[in-house]
From TrEMBL, chains A, B:
Keywords: ATP-binding, Kinase, Nucleotide-binding, Transferase. SUPFAM superfamilies: Actin-like ATPase domain. One of its GO terms (biological process) is glycolytic process. It holds the Pfam family ROK. Its EC number is 2.7.1.2. GO terms for cellular component: cytoplasm. Belongs to the ROK (NagC/XylR) family. It comes from Thermotoga petrophila (strain ATCC BAA-489 / DSM 13996 / JCM 10882 / RKU-10) (Thermotoga naphthophila). Transmembrane segments: none annotated. This is Glucokinase. GO terms for molecular function: ATP binding; glucokinase activity. It is an enzyme of class 2 (transferase). CDD domains: ASKHA_NBD_ROK_TmGLK-like (cd24064).
């Protein structure tokens, strides 16, 4: 049996045909065109599913969506990326149009499931996963099971406070991990830093303070730029406090970090691993690994496909 | 069937005979006398078990112990309270002496189980519990199951960083919840505050800065003492950030706070509930309760007895 995974994003969506062992056999990516309305988006997702499934036995579809999800009933309650989506019965709508059984999960939960079934989490029962991108998403597998909480809205690992009275977060609280260590936070630090540090390499690499982003930051840090290293340290220190907290809470075998920022490599992971040791109790030293997600650009589709594995059993 | 619960502490231990519905029918409390060596302590616990069990059908014993526990094998790996205890096979030793099947759990895990089976957590599948005492312990039930992690050392909820670069914690990190919101931290704040705030009501109630503790703090705060309210606010603010984090992570039905400090009542819980709302995302508002443990001084024995319920099924 092959799996179909749908990675639904605010700008594009991707649909992939995935083998049982996590290879992407076929893939289409389309513009989401949220502005055309939800009916149109759903219709085009269904078309892409049928296109990708052509001729294959694919009774199941998994879909990972941003926003607040009713996972039991397959409903997107609301999503900042889709202003006109309120309580959309996404799985029913897609099932009607494709004849397949559809499972829905929050995209960060799908990410940790993808790692569990096809990525760095294979063989582990205790996994903490963070996606560092525009926002910071979290997913947790504990004692072999996805942690979702009473209403399915748990594992919001990006919204623990790491800098009391720190920068304002989109969620309305100050100093959340997302407000310090996300790509958005880094762009804001770089814009704000220009006045004082305008001769930093970051701005030369970026061309202008408005264009400066996480990639420029880590590239400049790798070359020893003082300002870039200062921002890098702030981002890593906050992340290390959060990760150390998750290690204390979940006693995981592995902490997997994905999203765009995870591609920074050792300039991020080196000091992160060191700092986490500073922040944990001695009894936790040596109990975990911290790794970058190996799934990279396939994480979305593989995560979505793995929802099927999780729901029907591997 | 009746249950036997053993609450093992560094100063005293208590053994109780507990009914299926969580009433303590008989109870003995003895000095632990750690200085007499572990053989003697174990022998006297076994005697107390047999004394309490006299004439009753009690095939099982649950024991809650501080320190690092190998819950699967019933071994106390080490415990700060018992300097000569290293990898002590406590359940085997007690089983040999009593003829009963013995289950061992970390005391903070026993606390959340006690709440689940006999306290404020009855009927809930998602419970976060904190004990605010000399240290801060944590226990979590998520999706109906006790969270222990890979090595059984998870749910260390007292060791998340709430004040970066804050007071040094016993665990070696700065600014842990335990270093700000435990009874020990409060005593330290009160000693340190004497120089500047020596006319505070706290010190009048206590008699001397050395004697000032959490009870004096909350009593003075209730009477509007400015210094006491300042310390209360710091303690509550740190606790609120941690609790908000746990709500984001576990999406629990209930957060239960026990230990000596939980007896402070509204002077603690009123501002705590308000502050937590400030720190959580809007989608979590109204999803949880925050309550004081109703088990009070019986929490230790009932928690220990509930380990039996958890292991053999209620």
């Amino acid at each position: 049996m092959k799996l179909i995974g749908v990675d639904l994003g605010g700008t594009t969506f991707s649909v992939g045909l995935v083998s049982e062992d996590g290879k992407i056999l076929k893939k289409v990516t389309r513009d989401t065109l949220v502005e055309n309305g939800k009916e149109d988006v759903i219709r085009r997702i269904a078309e892409a599913i049928l296109e990708v499934a052509d001729g294959e036995e694919t009774p199941y579809v998994g879909i990972g969506s941003p926003g607040s999800i009713d996972r039991e009933n397959g409903i997107v309650r609301f999503s900042p990326n889709f202003p006109d989506w309120h309580n959309v019965p996404l799985t029913d709508e897609l099932a009607k149009r494709t004849g397949k059984k559809v499972f829905l999960e929050n995209d960060a939960n799908a990410f940790v499931l993808g790692e569990k079934w096809f990525g760095a989490g294979r063989g582990y029962d205790h996994i903490v996963a963070l996606t560092l991108g525009t926002g910071i998403g979290g997913g947790v597998v504990t004692h072999g099971h996805l942690l979702t909480g009473r209403d399915g809205i748990g594992a919001e690992l990006g919204h623990v406070v790491v800098e009391p009275n720190g920068p304002m977060c989109n969620c309305g609280t100050r100093g959340c991990l997302e407000a310090v260590s996300s790509a958005t936070a880094i762009r804001r630090f770089l814009r704000e830093g220009y006045k004082k540090y305008h001769d930093s390499l970051v701005y030369k690499l970026a061309g202008s303070p408005e264009k400066a982003d996480a990639k420029h930051l880590f590239d400049a840090a790798r070359q020893g730029d003082r300002f870039a290293l200062m921002i890098r340290d702030r981002v890593v220190d906050a992340l290390a406090r959060a990760v150390a907290g998750y290690i204390h809470i979940f006693n995981p075998e592995i902490v997997i970090i994905g999203g765009g920022i995870s591609r920074a490599g050792e300039i991020l992971f080196g000091p992160l691993r060191e700092k986490v040791v500073d922040y944990i109790m001695p009894s936790f030293v040596g109990t975990y690994e911290i790794v970058a997600s190996p799934l990279v650009e396939d994480a979305g589709i593989l995560g979505a496909a793995s929802i099927i594995k999780e729901r029907i059993g591997g």
